[in-house]
What we know:
Low-confidence stretches: none
Structural class: mainly alpha
Number of strands: 0
Number of domains: 1
Number of helices: 4
Helix content: over 70%
Oligomer: single chain
Strand content: under 5%
Radius of gyration: 9 Å
Order of helices and strands: HHHH
Amino acid sequence: MDLVRIILAIILPPLGVFLQVGLGKHFWLNILLTLLGYIPGIVHAVYIIAKR
């Protein structure tokens, strides 16, 4: 299941984070990072998924 989340995190980072933690602070932080730059959003999403 983590592989699917990582693939989704690469395509759409906030979706990967949402599937992992829901609508928490990490989700909103990831939306902000994705809006500021696509790569920081991906890095944060993969980090959140790999951490858990």
